[in-house]
Automatic annotation (TrEMBL):
SUPFAM superfamilies: RmlC-like cupins (SSF51182). This is Cupin domain-containing protein. Residues 42-107 form the Cupin type-2 domain. The lineage of its organism: Bacteria, Bacillati, Actinomycetota, Actinomycetes, Kitasatosporales. Gene3D superfamilies: Jelly Rolls.
Amino acid sequence: MITKFPIEESSATREFGMACQRLIPWRGDTPEPPVGAMACFLPAGSASDPDCHAQDEVMIVLSGGGTIELDGEKAEFTANEVLVLPRGKEHVVHASRNVPCTWVSVYWPLHEHQASGTAEVDA
């Protein structure tokens, strides 16, 4: 069976200082996959909240561009580029002043293990 749904900002919720649409896992997805994915929509001239997690992340930039800060390092990026963010590194995405930025992030493992117990959280 093929599951199909659109990537659109109207399906997103506010997370990490921007609009995010959870793509994987999707509703009714069983068994749970080993990775997660979300579409991120960042308005022109704005920045995401600082984020740091125990998951590796790949950002596939769909449109726009900007700058990413990763643990003190800065790099510019544009549409049709892939950014690889290693786990445990704080990062902030800044959209360019003139154009919104949209990307899909794929991260693994799906859940972060909390050091204080067995609870898990999503990236």
